[in-house]
Design goal:
68% of the residues lie in helices and 0% in strands. The N and C termini lie far apart (83 Å).
Length: 518
């Protein structure tokens, strides 16, 4: 197409002639359709377009030019990551909240992997504790079992303390890299060796001093390795705020360094004490002085970072309770078929040993009830403090060792009063610890979600207290040898269900009265 005024060839889709400014036929028809007449652009007598008047002197341009880009290290990788996220349909916002959420999730998989290994390590030594079904062996091995219980409780406390420091550490560490991951692997490898060292001390003949010292050195060395790995992890992460929040208080960094330095120093002092008792005593006095100084240095520091996050406590508790249920199953002594593969012999062996599954059934139901209470409790708790962590670990210790009273009660309920009393006392202590956890959290609402209504707090507290009272009452019922473990379990579930129903109905009645008053 050519311009009808000057004959210049017109580009496709153009509205005006690029040479003289005359409207093209396409533009004329469009303007006539919209306004009823063609509107030509302003021009001179020759038909040319008048240029726009220059802006007054000093007037800023309507669209300022963008500043020259300064490429920074990592910008290319960041842009590539954004392009990858957009290409795969992932939304990305560069807001401060989104950046903070990304930092909080950076260590999520590392923490979950660590908690899985620590949960296994904290229950590992309990597998070696067996309750024999032969009464003669039960009496003969009583001293060994007491030593095994003491050894396991010591290893549990040590691993729990190291988990608490790991938990505290990763409140402040916001990012990770390969060096930090490797240091965390070193910590996990040492933690798993702690219960193994305890087990060696437990099984070694006390009269064999050289072997006993080797087992003791393995135990202390594994603890020293675990706490040294934690210390090195913190030093690496806090160096020039490499993996920490840039706004973290330098005094808090120093306090955490002193806190983590105490544990390997204690292990070294204990190792030296074995060889040089006097030097070890001086070292212990120096450590006491260091604790006093650390306490003084902590004044005025806010060390509550991360106290609003109970997610890791929940996941770790669930892992430990799950492993405790499998430990009960691991206690089952499967029948021996003495090399026979005949169907009749196998059926007789299985039929004669079906009662071995009964302790597992009792344990699964009892631990399931405790898990449900723990699950419901932490739906109301949204913060934590040191006392809550200590009480929760006490509850987990009772849960892990629950297989021992259950197996004793199932095997010897009709023969031994001690087995029935042992089972009832252990259930009472476990239920009491649940009540203490709730008391710590609900007292003055110090650790509860502020949106929870008062009647919900009272109802759940009533359920926990009723569970404790039912178990305590059944303690005296279980002392009767005529009450089998099966009847005990049915009575417990029936009483707990009735108490829950009564509490629920009373709560509904109270709500109805409040509605009528309103």
């Amino acid at each position: 197409m050519q311009c009808r005024t000057c004959g210049t060839a017109l580009p496709s889709g153009s509205a005006f002639c690029p040479n003289c400014g005359t409207a093209t036929p396409y533009n004329v028809s469009r303007q006539e359709g919209n306004h009823g007449a063609a509107i030509s652009p302003p021009g001179n007598a020759s038909g040319g377009i008048l240029p726009p008047p220059p802006p007054p002197e000093g007037t800023p341009p309507p669209y300022p030019a963008p500043p020259p880009s300064e490429e920074k290290p990592g910008d290319l990788e960041h842009s590539a990551a954004l392009a990858h996220e957009r290409a795969h349909g992932h939304a990305h916002t560069d807001t401060p909240d989104a950046h903070k959420e990304h930092e909080e999730n950076a260590n999520e998989r590392l923490i979950l992997f660590s908690d899985a290994i620590i949960a296994f390590a904290i229950t590992l030594a309990a597998i070696s504790i067996k309750i024999p079904r032969d009464p003669a062996l039960l009496v003969q091995q009583s001293d060994f079992r007491v030593a095994a219980y003491i050894a396991y409780i010591v290893s549990f406390a040590i691993v729990a303390a190291s988990w608490n420091e790991h938990h505290r550490l990763f409140h402040y560490i916001k990012r990770n890299d390969m060096v930090l991951v490797l240091l965390n692997f070193a910590y996990l490898a040492a933690v798993v060796l702690v219960p193994i060292g305890i087990f060696f001390i437990e099984v070694v003949d006390p009269n064999n001093i050289p072997i006993l010292l080797k087992a003791f050195y393995l135990f202390l060395g594994s603890m020293l390795g675990a706490y040294l790995a934690l210390l090195l992890t913190w030093i690496y992460a806090s160096r020039r705020h490499r993996l920490l929040d840039a706004e973290m208080n330098p005094r808090l960094i120093t306090y955490m360094t002193m806190r983590l330095l105490f544990y390997p120093a204690l292990m070294l002092v204990l190792l030296v004490t074995v060889v040089f008792p006097l030097v070890g005593l001086v070292g212990l006095l120096a450590l006491v002085a260091a604790l006093v100084y650390r306490r003084w240095y902590r004044r005025g520091l806010d060390i509550s970072s991360g106290s609003n996050d109970v997610g890791r406590i929940l996941l770790f508790s669930d892992a430990v309770i799950g492993i405790a249920i499998t430990i009960i199953a691991a206690q089952i002594e499967f029948p021996s078929f003495a090399g026979s593969t005949g169907g009749e012999e196998v059926q007789k062996a299985i039929a004669g040993d079906l009662h071995l599954l009964f302790p597992y059934a009792i344990g699964f139901v009892v631990l399931g009830v405790y898990w449900l209470f723990h699950y419901r409790m932490f739906r109301y708790i949204n913060r934590h403090d040191p006392w809550l962590i200590v009480l929760n670990f006490g509850f987990l210790l009772c849960i892990v060792l629950m297989f021992a009273p259950i197996n004793s009660y199932a095997a010897y309920s009709s023969q031994r009063l001690g087995a029935r009393f042992y089972f009832g006392i252990w259930q009472t202590v476990t239920a009491l610890l649940l009540v203490l956890i709730w008391w710590r959290a609900a007292g003055k609402r110090r650790l509860l979600d502020h949106t929870i209504a008062d009647d919900q707090i009272r109802r759940f507290g009533a359920r926990l207290v009723s569970n404790l009272l039912i178990i305590f009452a059944l303690l005296f019922v279980a002392l009767n040898p005529a009450i089998s473990p099966g009847w005990y379990l049915l009575l417990y579930l029936a009483a707990l269900g009735l108490a829950t129903l009564v509490i629920h109905l009373r709560g509904r009645r109270a709500q109805a009265q409040q509605v009528r008053v309103a």
